[in-house]
Amino acid sequence: MRINPFGGSRRTQQADAVVTGAGSGIGRAFAVELGKRGGRIVCSDIDPERARHTAELIGDTGGKAFDTGCDVRSLDQVTALANTAEEWFGKSPDLVVNNAGIGRGGTVIGETPPAEWHQVLDVNLWGVIHGCHVFTPRLREAGHGAIVNVASAAAFGSAPRMAAYNVSKAGVLALSETLAAELSGTGVTVTVLCPTGVRTNILEGVSIGDETVRLWGARLLRWTGRSPAAIARGTLDAVDQGRLYVVPQIEAKAIWQSKRLLPETYTRAAGLVERLVR
Ligand SMILES: NC(=O)c1ccc[n+]([C@@H]2O[C@H](COP(=O)([O-])OP(=O)(O)OC[C@H]3O[C@@H](n4cnc5c(N)ncnc54)[C@H](O)[C@@H]3O)[C@@H](O)[C@H]2O)c1
């Protein structure tokens, strides 16, 4: 799966990095791990208090971090984020993690309110499009660097009752693959992260079907989810190896392989599960 000829490079060491959605979960774990690797980190989040807390965590371990608010749904705010980061670093960033995202689901197509479709696509897909649109020219001009886009195994898993989320993540996967090809030979690499469950706050305070379904989903995530720190470490190691795809967990790999080897059988099986729970 390696498409970039940078095997062995250590681009995540002492990287000047920008992380979106850095106030919680996977984004916070990326920011903290990058801080441990000696980089200067711009921690951004729609919730500036959460971003500040992440920056403090990095500061507590001797790292250097700057916190700022940024709603990735806004192209103007993402542009301002890039300008702020360049000012603080005194140069363009080495690494950008387009991580901010929200979870929604629990309804079937036709019953999912259009407002929810827009909400999910605005953050999960447009947020990453904005990040790639704003930062790519800057990294390309610098002639080096890496972009990490956080997708999900939902990008290819296409589980029922998660259409908006699935579509948003499939978009992030396609965007990342296209960008990787377009940046080939420029010195800038692209890595797309496609995990299954990770123990984060993604199901806190959101509507996923009824409250019982959400509570069980949150419990399942706590019991079976991988730690965000392990996900961030593994992904950054993959960036160092110039890898495009990071499909970290065994079940994510199983879904990935099934979809490639037996796509129709996979979807029929998903339909069977849907009929059982209906
Ligand atoms: N947790 C999982 O099981 C899982 C699995 C696969 C993929 N992901 C993806 O990982 C990414 C991070 O999610 P998480 O699980 O850490 O969730 P989380 O809720 O713990 O953290 C998400 C962070 O993003 C911020 N955010 C939300 N909307 C934003 C916006 N418009 N602009 C900027 N920041 C915003 C939140 O304030 C929060 O701090 C998401 O893209 C999510 O889809 C998560």
Defining key terms:
278 residues, alpha/beta, Rossmann fold, 7-stranded parallel sheet, 7 strands, globular, disordered N terminus, binds nicotinamide-adenine-dinucleotide
Total count of strands: 7
Describe the strand arrangement of the main beta sheet, using strand numbers.
3-2-1-4-5-6-7
Classify the fold: give the CATH topology: Rossmann fold
Shape from CA axes? Answer: globular
Nearest-angstrom radius of gyration? 18 Å
Largest sheet: number of strands, sense, barrel closure:
7 strands, parallel
Helix content: 40-55%
| Helix count, DSSP H or I runs of 4 or more residues | 10
- How far do the termini sit from each other? 38 Å
> What is the second-level CATH architecture?
3-Layer(aba) Sandwich
Q: Which ligands accompany this protein?
A: nicotinamide-adenine-dinucleotide
Arithmetic mean pLDDT: 94
**Low-confidence runs:** 1-8
Q: How is the topology of this model organized?
A:
Blueprint: E1 17-19, H1 25-36, E2 40-45, H2 48-60, E3 64-69, H3 75-89, E4 95-98, H4 114-142, E5 145-150, H5 154-157, H6 163-182, E6 188-193, H7 211-224, H8 228-240, E7 245-246, H9 250-261, H10 263-277
Helix pairs in contact: 1-2, 1-8, 3-4, 4-6, 9-10
Residues 20-21, 23-27, 45-47, 50, 70-73, 99-102, 123-124, 127, 150, 152, 195, 197-198, 200-202, 221, 225 line the site of nicotinamide-adenine-dinucleotide.
